[in-house]
């Protein structure tokens, strides 16, 4: 069952010595065959070999596979069966499984329900905000629900607002997620009821904005939404004009206490930080309660409490999310981790009866098996790839991308992938600043994935002759200079075809492909924060 692997038995196997020798010989033969296929394109083989000989990959683990998307013919392979950390390329697995198992038209529903009895405009009982797992529920949507409650004629609620996140289990963070990532927006807590305050659905976060006052005074701090249950310690000073800014907003682990520090220059632009919130369901309940008050619905007891999920209640009003086909756009374009994890738990709830990671991942693995992708087993414990326990091979990634081309939802999924070099946020996504000015621009559709020592790119490139190619490039265990230009160069080479000087050496042919392109540093390591900071707006 997926989860934290036993540390001392992770790679042990009890195999008789003779059997181990046979197995080793078989694996070596298979590896050699896969890593050295008969070249379908000698120039491509020479060019990619030259790229992979770069010193930036000298001590790294690298796996590459390139396929003809129509025939499945292997055009190039280098360690395609190596088990490597996928980071956010795992979202390709989760999103395709969700589309197949839940359907492209699937929607999430959030309900407001009532307990007790209604007498005219008075509800003698509680209002229950029941989460349906919607990863895209916005502050505006909760305001709309409050509008509907008021429009139904309810003006007084004698009880409380109960926040019900019980659709999913009570484990908020995935197996193997780093504890020091917890305050940051790319590592939200997962609940059956959560709220986002922006159109990119960065759930379970609050915007903390620090604006300067007069020099020598404390800076002004505001929250959006204002109902977020944050408490402050410390302060940010306002320095002299031009003195620079060093604002610190740090959430204490396990609480909603924010430690403020540093200074901001008088007259400087405000500084906004995105911080996660403990207990996302009651956070959403507080935002809803605030909306009720604004719309003239008085909740007499005034407090927000967690529901048990077992309350006897009746439906009052509801909100429907966008379709799954629409929700995978922000999930893939900007690498939204929260959406991926909600889809994983929703798959578990709908197909396996339990809204938890283990059940969801088991269903995803069943999807892979049903499509002939069960070996090698690899390991998956979450939906976003935020965990370092996840392992998958480049060959399986490439085969997945080849197989899903025949699915009825493929066009929607393909268009949801980031498009190289396209500057529009919800087109280019995490590849908006990469491969610009090359044949890959507006050609390559691919998902990136990165964390400390990991950089991956898997997707599709259209060759000059019109053939669609599938590629998976995975680099693990590097330190120092980022190998990202090499990943991009492989995609550019596929989109470009043989370089203009076929008589030159492979090194000469690929030299122009490895020049740095804009955006190469977007995943720069910043201490403890390095997981999909390619979605730089919130990292």
Automatic annotation (TrEMBL):
Keywords: Carboxypeptidase, Hydrolase, Protease, Signal. Transmembrane segments: none annotated. InterPro entries: Beta-lactam/transpept-like, Peptidase_S13. The keyword Endoplasmic reticulum does not apply. One of its GO terms (molecular function) is serine-type carboxypeptidase activity. Residues 509-526 have a biased composition (Polar residues). GO terms for biological process: peptidoglycan metabolic process; proteolysis. Residues 1-34 form the signal peptide. Pfam families: Peptidase_S13 (PF02113). Residues 501-526 are annotated as: Disordered. Belongs to the peptidase S13 family. This is D-alanyl-D-alanine carboxypeptidase/D-alanyl-D-alanine-endopeptidase (Penicillin-binding protein 4). The lineage of its organism: Bacteria, Bacillati, Actinomycetota, Actinomycetes, Kitasatosporales.
């Amino acid at each position: 069952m997926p989860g934290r692997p036993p540390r001392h038995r992770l790679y042990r196997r009890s195999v008789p010595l003779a059997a181990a020798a046979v197995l080793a010989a078989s694996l070596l033969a298979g590896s050699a065959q896969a890593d050295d296929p008969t070249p379908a394109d000698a120039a491509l083989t020479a060019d990619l070999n030259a790229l992979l000989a770069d010193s930036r990959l000298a001590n790294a683990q690298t796996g590459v596979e390139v396929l003809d998307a129509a025939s499945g013919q292997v055009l190039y392979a280098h360690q395609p069966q190596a088990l490597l950390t996928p980071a956010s390329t795992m979202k390709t697995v989760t999103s395709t499984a969700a589309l197949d198992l839940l359907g492209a038209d699937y929607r999430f529903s959030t309900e407001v329900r009532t307990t007790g009895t209604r007498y005219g405009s008075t509800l003698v009982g509680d209002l229950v905000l029941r989460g349906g797992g919607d990863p895209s529920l916005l502050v505006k949507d909760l305001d709309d629900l409050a509008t509907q409650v008021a429009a139904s004629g309810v003006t007084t609620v004698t009880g409380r607002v109960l926040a019900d996140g019980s659709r999913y289990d009570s484990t908020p963070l995935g197996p193997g997620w780093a504890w020091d990532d917890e305050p940051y927006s790319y590592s939200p807590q997962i609940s059956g009821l959560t709220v986002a305050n922006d159109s990119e659905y960065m759930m379970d976060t609050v915007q903390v904005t620090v604006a300067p006052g007069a020099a020598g005074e404390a800076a002004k701090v505001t929250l959006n939404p204002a109902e977020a249950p944050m408490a402050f310690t410390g302060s940010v000073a306002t320095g002299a004009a031009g003195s620079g800014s060093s604002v610190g907003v740090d959430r204490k682990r396990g609480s909603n206490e924010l430690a403020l520090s540093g200074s901001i220059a008088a007259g400087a632009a405000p500084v906004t930080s995105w911080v996660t919130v403990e207990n996302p369901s009651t956070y959403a309940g507080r935002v809803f309660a605030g909306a009720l008050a604004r719309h003239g619905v008085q909740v007499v007891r005034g407090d927000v409490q967690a529901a048990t999920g077992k309350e006897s209640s009746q439906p009052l009003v509801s909100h429907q999310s966008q379709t799954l086909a629409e929700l995978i756009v922000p999930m893939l374009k900007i690498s939204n981790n929260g959406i991926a994890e909600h889809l994983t738990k929703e798959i578990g709830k709908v197909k396996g009866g339990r809204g938890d990671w283990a059940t969801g991942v088991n269903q995803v693995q069943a999807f892979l098996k049903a499509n002939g992708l069960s070996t090698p087993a690899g390991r998956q414990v979450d939906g976003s790839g935020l965990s370092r326990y996840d392992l998958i091979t480049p060959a399986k990634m490439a085969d997945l991308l080849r197989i899903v081309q025949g699915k009825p939802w493929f066009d929607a999924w393909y268009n949801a992938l980031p498009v190289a070099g396209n500057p529009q946020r919800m087109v280019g996504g995490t590849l908006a600043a990469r491969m610009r000015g090359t044949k890959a621009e507006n050609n390559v559709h691919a998902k990136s994935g990165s964390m400390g020592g990991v950089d991956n790119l898997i997707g599709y490139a259209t060759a000059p002759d019109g053939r669609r190619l599938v590629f998976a490039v995975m680099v693990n265990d590097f330190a120092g200079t980022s190998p990202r230009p090499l990943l991009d160069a492989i995609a550019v080479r596929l989109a470009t075809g043989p370089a203009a000087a076929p008589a030159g050496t492979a090194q000469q042919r690929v030299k122009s492909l490895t020049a740095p392109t804009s955006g190469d540093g977007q995943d720069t390591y910043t201490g403890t924060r390095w997981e999909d900071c390619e979605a730089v707006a919130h990292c």
